[in-house]
Amino acid sequence: MPALGSVLAGSLHSVNHPAMRIYRTPQAMQRAARQWQREDSRIGFVPTMGYLHAGHLSLVEAARKRVGPKGRVVVSIYVNPTQFAPHEDLSTYPRDLPRDLQLCRDAQVDAVFFPTDAVMYPGRESGDYSTYVAEELVSQGLEGVSRPTHFRGVTTIVAKLFNCVLPDVAVFGAKDWQQAAVIRRMSINLNFPVKVIVAPTHRESDGLAMSSRNVYLSPTERPEATVLWRSILWCRRRVKEAGEVPATILSGEVRRLVETESRGRLDYAAFFDGVSLRPVERVTSGTHMALAVFLGKVRLIDNGRL
């Protein structure tokens, strides 16, 4: 595996590789995207914060299927500071760029967009950056309650990335269900010419949804983390057996299940319409469920259709 310094050696704007290019600035990425448009190549885009895993690679595969062998697939690797609250894990978020780049090469990604904070948020450190994008309906519940500044950062960076990559198709994972809904709403409301695709959640063999933050789990916490998936399965069985269950009752049952784990603490369990994200009072077949759970200091999310 090449050292980080050798990976980034060469031009400030891009690094050549026989099968993949790496772009470091919005201007270089836009120039490449416009050239692909002139060539009538469709562009598929997978935004990530790096520390890639099989779930990310499944999104790359979905993007490739959408744009075809003659299209271009772009992966962005950028840990976006504006979606982290001051007390969250921005500084410790897992990073491994050489490994990420190799995984992208192996997956036949055409280009990686790997910008810096300075080019994505010019002047932010000195207080001269002042433009943000906010979705004000779909983002209000669930993660929007627990992380009130999060989605403004997400919509801002995704809008900026769309403007850099100029994709025809962008693929997001279903694990972040609310995020995908927020981005879809933003794309429609702001007339981005991008089709937002939500690909299925990729899971470990024991059901744990793949996440870069899973690396934070201790050996004790790792098996306990399956309580998120077990909670979804529990709720599916309850609804199948009862036909209809009050959301407050089901939420209490999920809380008790989570708290059977020594390190488990429920942040929220919510039941809602999967399209509008409006909460429901009575849970039936087809209702969507999302939950956030702390395992010690590690916070994980998951969701599923009941």
First and last CA, distance? 43 Å
Integer average pLDDT: 94
Number of strands: 12
Strand order of the largest sheet: 1-2-5-4-3-6-7
How large, in whole angstroms, is the Cα Rg? Answer: 20 Å
| Number of H/I helices | 11
Beta content: 15-25%
Q: How many domains make up the 3D coordinates?
A: 2
Kindly report the name of the CATH homologous superfamily of the largest domain: HUPs
- General shape: globular
Largest sheet: 7 strands, mixed
What top-tier CATH class of the largest domain fits best? Alpha Beta
* Class per helix and strand makeup: alpha/beta
What pattern of helices and strands is seen along the backbone? HEEHEHEHEHHHEHEHHEHEEEE
Helicity range of the residues?
25-40%
CATH topology of the largest domain: Rossmann fold
